Amino acid sequence: MDEHLSLQARIYAAWIDLLRQNRGAEGRPDQYYGLSVENVQGYGEEFELRVTFRAGRTYCCCEDICHTGVFTEERWRQLRSALAVHGVELHKPLVVRIFTRLEAGARLHYGKSDEPEPEVYDQGPWTLTIHEQSPVIPARDERS
After folding, report:
1. Helix ranges, the chain (H)
2. In sequence order, which residues have a C-beta less than 8 Å from that of residue 42 and are 6 or more positions away?
3. Cα(71)–Cα(110) distance, rounded to whole angstroms?
4. Collapsing DSSP states into helix, strand and coil, what is residue 3?
């Protein structure tokens, strides 16, 4: 198997774990969103996460940071921990490019309680590049 393909699949699995608790995903973010990991560089320290808000689904909004998490030190730690669970151990700062796209037919609440109308047009992609300032090493369980 191609080593980058395997690495790509492991990074994808880590994101599935991170997005599993999102409202609406009901434990299956791979069915709720269109997700892919592309253009993996090096040992996984740089990659693109592509998130598509799918037609026929309802979301609170289509803001990338709302759905992937605000990249605080804690979120970097969570990402590194999820990557490590899937065998991706990194020692360099990460660079994550998030591409979001909205499919025509997706519904967005934007904080309103009434049922939203489906979006008429495909929109995006929008791009956000996030640089980790320095590697945030996951905290080890002291009980082990």
Report:
1. 3-19, 29-32, 64-68, 73-85
2. 92
3. 21
4. helix
Inter-residue contact 10 to 86 (CB < 8 Å): yes
Place of tokens 């899937």: 86
| DSSP-assigned letter for residue 137 | P
Q: What is the pTM of this model?
A: 0.85
User: What digits encode the pLDDT tens for the residues 38-70?
Assistant: 999 999 999 999 999 999 999 999 998 889 988
Q: Which two tokens stand for residue 51?
A: 């998130």
- Closest listed residue to residue 43, CA positions, set 8, 75, 18, 68: 8
Closest C-alpha among 85, 142, 143, 65 to residue 77: 85
d(CA 123, CA 113): 23
